[in-house]
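Chapter review. Work through the record for Glycosyltransferase involved in cell wall bisynthesis before attempting the end-of-chapter questions.
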Amino acid sequence: MKIHHLIIDGGSGGAETFLSRLARALQARGHPQHVILTANAPQEEYMRRHDVPHTVLDFGKLSKPFSLLKMRRIVNRERPDAIVAWMSRSGRNIPRGRHLTVGRLGNRYKIDNFKRCDLIVGNSPDLVEFAIQGGRPDARLITNFIELSPFPPIDRSHIRRPLLLACARLNPAKGFDVLLHALTRLDAHLWIAGVGKLREELESLAIRLGVADRVEFLGWRSDVPALLAAADVFVFPSRWEGTSNSLLEAAAAAKPIVTTSGLSVSWFLEHEKSALIVPVDDEEALARAVQRLVSEPNLGHQLGLAAQRIYQSTFSEDAVCDQWIKTLAEAIEAKAAASSLRGS
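Structure tokens for Glycosyltransferase involved in cell wall bisynthesis:
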């Protein structure tokens, strides 16, 4: 089964990271891949390292018509069995044809952006329900997986306080403003790993709140396991999500987690059993939960082990790849059968 992927919304975040992992994993299982993307240095380097075929195109206003033509030529030449569109802009521009077209939801994108798609795949139960309520009863659930690469802990010898780690794209949905406010109530140091349009705004907020000397903005990192190994608590204050790669990485590492009850954020975790889960936008509750894990390391250890067991039982690479292969194969067969009926 030959699969193409289209991701042209730009940026570096969870969707780009997971697409790269999935293409690598499906190719390793004998399914040829080709990723069409806009310029993205970390994603391109990853695919070069793993020999995943990819084409970088410019979908800016002036270049878009020529890039759409190039994309169509690639599709006509390689004749994929399926094309997966990642995020909204990709869904609007996915090329139609005899191949299966799939829209992959990792957030509450407008369903109309995926009307060119034969099938919708959401990475959390809430997103599948969102798609169904939006008129797509074909929506299917396939979660994410992560890569468990061994990394030695990052040196934190210069930090004399408990170390908190947060990883995500720097945008309003992730709730980093709430985390910075919570930090004013804590005697802790914070690492924030990620890139995005809010970096300068968040840096300015840290200065205004008087916590800038206890916050480090690390930018894009490919060594998140090493950051997790060094940190004491993983904090994820997101307002809404799909299935977060960052939360999965923290769970896989058995790291104590504080997160929120936001839509789809902590759907696979349980308060007091595998994480501490607080209301969205509640800086006081967030600070109290973090302080509790700092003060009760045995509780954090037990919660971390429980989260790790959930990851191992539900989110393994083999299980997720098997779901993708089975779902695509069945949908391709169904589309071919429907086409034959129309032609008879």
